Fold:
Amino acid sequence: MLRFIAGRLVLLFVTLLAASVVVFSISEFSPGSVARKSLGPYASQEQVESLTKRLKADDPLPLRYVRWLGVLAGVIDDPLQDPATGLDFHDPRGSRYFGNLGYSTLYKMPVNDVIWDRLGNTAILAGLAFAFIIPLSMIFGVLSGMREGSKTDRTLSTLSIVLTSIPEFASSVFLVTLFVILLPLLPGTSPLTESGQWSMASQLILPVAVLVIYDFGYVARMIRISMVEVMEKPYIRTAILKGLSPRRVIMRHALRNAMIAPFTVLLLQVNFLVSGVVVTELVFAYPGFGRMLLEASLFGDITLIEAATLITVTVAVVTQLLGDIGYMLLNPQVRID
Amino acid sequence: MSVEVQPAVAVNPLQPSSRRLFRRVLRSPTALTGLFLVAFWVVLAVLAPILPILPPNDQDMIAMGNPYPSAQHLLGTDVLGRDILSRLIFGARTVLQVAPLAVAVAMIVGIAIGLLAGYFGGWVDMLIGRLSDIVLAFPVIVLYVVLISNVGPSVFNIVVATTVASAPGIGRIVRGLVLVLKHQGYVDAAKMRGESTLHIMFVEILPNCRGPLIVDACLRLGYTIITIGILGFLGLGLPPPTPDWGGMVRETTTVINIWPHMSLIPSGAIVSLVLGFNLLADGIGEGNKQR
Structure:
């Protein structure tokens, strides 16, 4: 078990390195230099060139990548914070510390000041979405998987398929038309600031609903498949023949076993949620991580993109690891060595 | 998938003949509904150039004052006075060219790595497995957004991005199937006959992976259409003025308070096409299971 976790942590480390190299190399194609982005569009060509020289931004790619790693590890100073650049980029934590994610040229703030608040906002959004996805998909999955091919099964399965066919941007359009324009019950924008008529809670309803609609149908279908398989097992037949009530068969025997496989699926949804979050946050102007990632990519803010990549990959790998550990705990037949 | 390769010995439960597959689709109401939705858009997309519709990029300045559906513009016009019906049909043409291309390339790459990993096992399997883990851990949207915002939007880049993102998943499915199939009698028979490794992989094993792969391809077509829609919506889709459903929603969400039909219609279109592929996958999958 410990060896398995250690192996996964090594994989996490390798994945982080690989992802950061890939993102760094792709950003090479991005138009505009770091110096130009730091100085803004009205700086003269000489200013840009002299800053480029001082930042050593003309060095070959591998050298700059290693320098970025050095700044992150706190071994060398962040070149953007050097007072000699005249940029007035200043991180209150200092220019050399472990976990220095660099300076965002888009927000003109240290990445560490930009990223964590937004990540927190996104965590609220995703957490609330999960709080609905899990019970809803369990109810749908168990009710339809209990008796395969029954009327309930067909109705609920079709409903799940229809819901998973609605991408987030389309469901936003539908929900906004319904609840913002036709029946003005909810706000169409969620800046998370207490503004006059709309409370914080009301601002969260539509973004959460959009995430739940697209994701829960998929999870429900996974639980349904697993439930159908369990219901065909001999021990379920034995339990029924023993004369147990259907409720008892389902609650005592089927449910726990049917939850094993979807457990991993549920945690893999975190990865899906990330992409849903980008779209949803864009639609509702939600001050979160996904919208920041999109803005950083469009602007070409390489330090911010790198930081966001490291965080998303870590979240993905750690949830996968938790999923596998949970899977082993739930299912005594599975042992990984 | 209509290639009629029939290895001398192979009668495998996983392998539907194309004719039987078609009959199965006709018998399942779910699959039939899906087929109808997909066929509806395919026919419109194919016939787009000869249908009596306005050119998709022509601006009708007079209609801009009253962009609602009219005799001239059956579904109304968008903010720039372009005919929505025409852009919808030409948009179907765009998505139905890009999505199948992207899925086909991802399938080829995925099948190749899956066959290699499953058939050879050992360090090849190990290497491919580890690389797949790394790619699968990478949140897809980050890859799309970072790649396309930096390299620029084009069909080629969309195909590359979707291939990188979905090939490992397809590879895993194929690998799993190969692990079962490579111990079948007919594979041993082919080995005894002295057939080459390539022959065994592509003629003996691959055709028997058809059933699950057809279902997976349908599901992936749905996802890819959603992905292309999301990219268009984020402003990373095909460059304007190419009609593209996601882009149509993006261009009109700012006026959704005044003219909601401009965003509602393309959103509905994308849902109907994705639903078509999902229902088709579900219907065929149920059939696979019953056999």
Q: What stands out?
A: Chain A has a mean pLDDT of 82. Residues 126 and 324 of chain A are 21 Å apart (CA to CA).
